[in-house]
Design brief:
about 425 residues, alpha/beta, Udp-n-acetylmuramoylalanyl-d-glutamate--2,6- Diaminopimelate Ligase, Chain: A, domain 1, UDP-N-acetylmuramoyl-L-alanine:D-glutamate ligase, Protein-Tyrosine Phosphatase, Chain A, six-stranded mixed beta sheet, globular, cell division
Length: about 425
């Protein structure tokens, strides 16, 4: 079956599912394969549950004409997403970066949604499966789409661009993340830069944090570069205060004045400025920009303030890398509270530099005074330090539940694999 023919079926049944547990009657089931599963095994079950069709790549499972046999299910899913994307002549904004891309995506979506029918990545569906699924959820009424792109190796972003076809691009930053897959910090810049390479080739537009010299360099030759930052940019803003929540003084742009956000940490300043800049570029009113940025409440353990009785918890445990970990610790050190506890989980995917980067975090911790420091798992366990340590979040939780944390502020952060949110869950 051609992609065009499959697309005609999709128009009749415009809902795609890859998990039979979430399948609804009328969905098209795509039988994806992974290291530990084979979706072909569940194709028959999908039809029994009411799937209109099941797309499979193993002929042994084809039992009737509702089974669509293709060479490779994942490739077909991506090709279908590209075909759907090509039906739209609207801005597609792609956002990638080492830190802050999900928060940036959410803020940009909040601002644009005040004025346009805007579709965006749900949660963290930002990989080779999530991005095509996101594209296929975009309906005919779409006016703008915001697509988050995660990556941990070279040519990954370039691959996403082949079916997302972005018209506008954002690289929030290029720091120390996924060093193992990218081959070091220079490799991170090269990998994230694949988005700008695509935008440059297709004469699109990019938004850059002008404070970062490397983004100025990476964006050279692009048709339109829109800047934001703390100085010398189209939209300029600075931190007024990050006590509890981030306050921003917007100095230039269509909205000027104070922004009182519900985000924790001055490291969220670039994310706020980006959203204001994208809003201004797409002619969102100053009033709507202000309302959206002040109304956005973070969730999913990202820069999230949780209050439990007399305990204040900064839950920033969705992910961590050396860059974001250092920023979070330094920001927390500047908070006015006297009783502060750090609970940090190990960082993943750092390759040969992992021990060195964990030692650097320990060195950063040692510069400040803390009520208590708890380090959990991974390469933290292989280093000498004077702090409490546990093998995993479950052990840390057992310790935590026995402590008096009244009138205490706690920062909880770690890589996704550490599941640090379970400490208070």
């Amino acid at each position: 079956m051609t992609i065009a023919a499959l697309y005609n079926l999709f128009l009749q049944h415009p809902s795609v599912q890859t998990d039979t547990r979430k399948l609804q009657p009328g969905d098209i089931y795509f039988a994806l394969k992974g290291d530990n599963f084979d979706g072909n095994l569940f194709a028959g079950q999908a039809l029994e549950k009411g799937a209109a069709y099941a797309v499979i790549d193993n002929a042994a499972y084809k039992i009737n004409d509702q089974m669509i046999l293709v060479e490779d299910v994942l490739t077909t899913l991506q090709q279908l997403a590209k075909y759907h994307r090509q039906q739209f002549n609207i801005p597609f904004i792609a956002i990638t970066g080492s830190n802050g891309k999900t928060t940036s995506k959410e803020l940009v979506h909040a601002v644009l949604s005040t004025t346009y029918k805007t579709y965006t990545t749900e949660g963290n569906l930002n990989n080779h499966i999530g991005i095509p699924l996101t594209i296929l959820k975009i309906k005919a009424d779409a006016e703008i789409a915001v697509i988050e792109m995660g990556a941990n190796h070279q040519q990954e972003i370039a691959g996403y661009c082949k079916y997302a076809l972005p018209t506008h691009g954002v690289i929030t930053n290029a720091g120390k993340a996924h060093l193992e897959g990218f081959g070091g910090e220079a490799g991170v810049k090269k990998g994230k830069g694949e988005l700008f390479d695509y935008i440059r080739e297709h004469k699109g537009s990019v938004f850059i944090m002008n404070d970062y010299d490397y983004l100025q360099e990476m964006s050279k030759g692009i048709s339109e570069v829109i800047t934001y930052g703390t100085h010398d940019a189209m939209v300029v803003g600075t931190v007024v205060s990050s006590d509890t929540f981030l306050q921003v003084n917007m100095l230039s742009g269509n909205y000027t004045g104070l922004l009182q956000t519900k985000l924790v940490g001055d490291y969220n300043l670039p994310n706020v400025l980006l959203a204001a800049t994208v809003g201004q570029y797409f002619k969102v009113t100053a009033e709507n920009i202000k309302a959206a940025l002040e109304g956005y409440t973070p969730s999913n353990s990202r820069s999230q303030l949780m209050v439990k009785g007399a305990t204040h918890i900064i839950m920033d445990a969705y992910n961590a890398n050396p860059s974001s970990m250092k920023l979070a610790i330094e920001n927390f050190s500047r908070q006015p509270e006297t009783k502060k506890v750090l609970m940090l989980g190990a960082m993943a995917e750092l390759g040969a530099e992992s021990l060195q980067e964990h030692q650097a975090i320990i060195d950063t911790i040692s510069k400040y005074n803390w009520q208590q420091v708890v380090l959990v798992g991974g390469d933290f366990l292989k280093l000498s330090h004077p702090y409490l340590q546990f093998n995993n979040a479950a052990e840390a939780k057992e310790w935590y539940t026995g402590q008096d944390m009244d009138n205490t502020s706690i920062l909880i952060k770690g890589s996704r694999s550490m599941q640090m949110e379970k400490i208070i869950g």
